[in-house]
Amino acid sequence: MSLATLLVLADGRLPSGGHAHSGGLEAQVSAGRVRDSGSLDGFLRGKLATAGLVAAAFAAAACARPGEWADLDQGLDSRTPSPALRKASRAQGRALLRAARAMWSLPPVGREVHQPVALGVVAGAGGLGPEEAAVAAAHGTVSGAASAGVRLLGLDPYAVHGLLARLAPECDRIAAGAAAHCDRPVDDLPAASGPLLDIGAELHATWEVRLFAS
């Protein structure tokens, strides 16, 4: 395992389209549920425990099980009831694979896959293991939304990165638990959900004016 490779994959500057997505935060800010750094912290923790766990588990499984990507993608699709979130996930998966092809030799993946599955494929191509893929997925779940919080709410970026630093142990814990499931059948992988993320995504998709794609 290369820590430097993991840093490359988890770097927010990787041109994989993540900057265009708020991770559901824009809808929650509009609804008044996230207003300041305290409520942003609660949002990030809730997202990490639900969507973050699922993303980490599927990224780890995709890294560990080449050739099962279609089944994993279908399993993740069934865990994503919002059409808007499915569309956003596949767009980010497509962008990630495009960026990764400039760095590593990727195997044929087939049709457009969800971002966590693409992340697992890319992690494996870069020589990383399931737990490293899970760490990248868990971290990405909260770091993108945290960055969006700075833009949407005008929060102090130092304070927001303080939130991320305090979340790091929880990211590690979630990732380790997710990676421990990587050999299980698709139906037995985590299926935690955040209904307000799904509802918010569908409302957000109807807006004529918005800062983020999702």
From TrEMBL:
Q: Does the keyword Cytoplasm apply?
A: yes
What's the short name of a Pfam family annotated to this entry?
Answer: UreF
Any idea which UniProt keywords this protein has?
Answer: Chaperone, Cytoplasm, Nickel insertion
What would be one Gene Ontology cellular-component term for the protein? cytoplasm
Subcellular localization: Cytoplasm
Any one GO MF term held by the record is: nickel cation binding
Q: Does the keyword Cytoplasm apply?
A: yes
Function statement: Required for maturation of urease via the functional incorporation of the urease nickel metallocenter.
**Family to which the UniProt record says this protein belongs:** Belongs to the UreF family.
Q: What does the record note on quaternary structure?
A: UreD, UreF and UreG form a complex that acts as a GTP-hydrolysis-dependent molecular chaperone, activating the urease apoprotein by helping to assemble the nickel containing metallocenter of UreC. The UreE protein probably delivers the nickel.
Q: What's the name of the protein?
A: Urease accessory protein UreF
Q: What is the lineage of its organism?
A: Bacteria, Bacillati, Actinomycetota, Actinomycetes, Micromonosporales
